[in-house]
Amino acid sequence: MKKLFVLFAFCSLLVGCDKEDGPAGSGITIDASQRTIELGYTSGSATVRFTAHEDWEATVSAEDTWCSINPKSGTRGNASLNIGVSPNQTREVRTAVITLTAGEAKEEITVTQACMETLVATPDNFQVATEGDEIEFTITASVEYECAPSRDCRDWIELIDSTPGDKNENGHSVTTFRYRILPIEEGLEVRTGTIIATDNRVRQVITVVQGEVYTSTDFSRDGEVIELQKATEGKGINIVLMGDAFSDRLIADGTYEKVMNDAVDAFFSEEPYASFRDMFNIYAVIAVSKHEEYSENADTAFDGFFGEGTHVGGNDGRCVTYARKVKGIGSFELENTLIIVMMNRAHYAGTCYMNLPSSKKDYGCGLSIAYFPLGTDADMFRQLLTHEAGGHGFAKLADEYFYESMGAITNDAINQVNTVSELGWFKNVDLTSDPGEVKWSTFLSDSRYKDQGLGVFEGGNTYFRGVWRPTEESIMVHNVGGFNAPSREAIYYRIHKLAYGDEWKYDYEEFVKYALAAQAKAAAAPRIATRVPEHFVPLHAPVIRTTPVPAE
To answer: 112 — phi, psi (to 5°)?
Structure first.
C-alpha cells in the first residue's frame, strides 16, 4: 500500500510539472464560443482564452486598423488575447479576422462590430410645384424615432402613410413615408418646409421647397468688400463674414448686410470678445448666390450643404478666395483669419473646419471656417455663432459635451488632443482628472473662482470617459451659459497675442483683474434669457484638417 501511495505521488508530480511547462502535443485548443466576438459601435474590448501546444502568435489584417490585439505572441500553455476596437463611426457593420498560429496549426477569430446609430433619409430634399404634389422618401434607422413636419409647416405638409419594409443587411429598419404637399397659398412665390426625423439625439432633416424658385440675374456686387469695423487697438485681428444662398434681391434690399451686422453684434455679445472688440477688423464680402434655398438643383455661392444631423459645410476653397478679396489678407494673414459663413436657412446646425497651422505657436493659430444657418430666431442665431465661430473658430476650443454611447476616448483621439494642445488648442479639456495637473489647475486653487462652478468633470470632446472638462455647463456644452474661466482665458490670451505680437507677455493677475470686473459688469446688465432646449441636440464636432485650404 505504501509503495502504491509513493507511485501515485510521483505520477502526480510529473503531471504537475507538465502542466507548468505547458501542454504537450501540437495545435491550438479554443472553445467554439471564443471564435466569434461581437461588439457594439463604441470603443470596446473582449478577451479570448485558448490553449496553445506550441509557441504562438496572433495577427490581424493591416487594413483593419480599428481592431487591435495584445499580446501578439506567447509561449505554449494557457493564454489570453485582449481585443480592442475603436468607435465605428460608419453606417456599416465591419468585420476583422484575427489569425492564431502555433506551429502548423491555425485558428481564426472573427470580430464583428456594429455600426453607429443611423438615421438616414433618401432622398432628403424635394422641389415641389406650386399646385402641390406627393413626395416619398425612405428612412433607414438603427434607432426608434419619430417623424413629423416642423410646426411652422404642418398646415401644408400632411402625412399620407408610412410603410415598414424588411430590415437591411445591417439589421436596420427601412420605412417608406409618403407626404402630401398642399397647393401654395395665393400671393406666395416660394416656401420652404422641413420634415424632422429624430430620436432626440440623432436627427435627419428632409427639406421641401415649393413654388417658383427665384434666380439671380445681377451679379455686379459679387465680391464687393464692406468694412464693418476697423481696429483702434493693436495690429488688428481679421474676421471675414460672408453669406450663402443670398440672391441679388436679398443683397439689394439690405437683407445681406443686416445679417452681417447682426453677426457682428452676436459675436461681441460674449466676454472676452465684448471687452476687446476694438482690437478686431471686421469685413463682410458680398457673395451673390444664384438661388435662395438649399434643394437638389439649387446653386449657391459656396455650395453649402446640410449633411446628416447637424453637419453642414461648403466649398472651403471658394471661401478662401472671397476672403482674399479683402485688402491686406494674403496667404500669410489667412493663418490667423476667421471666416464665418452664414447659410440662408431657418435651421439648427453648425460645423467648424479648423486647419492646423504651418507654424507652432501656443495661441491657437490656423485658419478656421465656421458654417451655420440663421436659426429659427435671434437667440438661436447668437448661440450657433458663439459656439461655432467664437468657441471653435477663434478660440480653438473643444466641445465639452459628450455621448455616453461614445464610451472611452480612443487612442487616435488622445493623440489628436495631445497634438493640438501643443498648438494652444483645446485649452478647455484635458486627459487627466488630477486637480493639480489639469490645464485649469490655477483657477481651482484660486479662491476668487470658488463660486464659478469649476471642477474636473468627466466627459468632453464627445467622449464619455477618459477626458475631463472644467464646468458642468457652458457655451461649449449646450450653447448657453457663457464661456467658462479656462475658455475666457484662452480667448483673452489669443486676442492679445494676435493684437500685440509674440512680445506680449501673459500676466495671470492682469487677466483675473479684467475677468472679475467684466463678470461684475455682466451681472449688473440685463441679459437675454436662455435655457437648455428640452430635447437638445449637440452641434457637429469640429473637423480638424492637416493640409492647407487652396484658394479656388
So the answer is: -115, 130
